[in-house]
Amino acid sequence: LIAFFDFKRDRNRKGLQFGGMLLNPPTLNDIILRSFMIPRGYFLEVSDTIYDMLNGRVWMGHDIEKVDTPLLEAEFKKINKPAPTALSKIDTLHFTSSDTALGKIAIQVGLGRQAYGSCKDCRKNLKAIKKCEAFMAIVGEPEIKYEDDVHP
């Protein structure tokens, strides 16, 4: 299963938001959905659920390398627990920052736009990815160059 998630501070920077889905890889249909608004000091209460959802899976999300992963590691460190680890990561920021026609279409259909609600962001980004997949089926698959840190 692919763990598609968004983890960030809330608007007022007083708490945290976690939205995550476990996806069936061939269809990208969600199997499990979890969403938490986490007040300051309550991360311990949801840490086991977040750990179980993410640990040892392929992680997918927008800007997870620079934003979500460091925040996740910091929060687990604060409660003296090991942070979950990814089998590999698919960071959609690499895709939207590419200079490909499909990358530009991905931006137009909303990939990476923040709705400020972790669960909303996950759903919105997944919908954009499915639109890109439909577009690829119509025009044919583009030539893709993978970098070392991008999961194919």
From TrEMBL:
Molecular function, one GO term: 3'-5' exonuclease activity
Give yes or no: UniProt keyword Hydrolase. Answer: yes
Supply the InterPro entries for this chain. Answer: RNaseH-like_sf
Task: Note whether Methyltransferase occurs among the keywords.
Answer: no
Q: Which top-rank group of organisms is this from?
A: Eukaryota
Q: Which UniProt keywords apply?
A: Exonuclease, Hydrolase, Nuclease
Q: What is this protein called?
A: Protein NEN2
What organism, scientifically named, is this protein from? Noccaea caerulescens
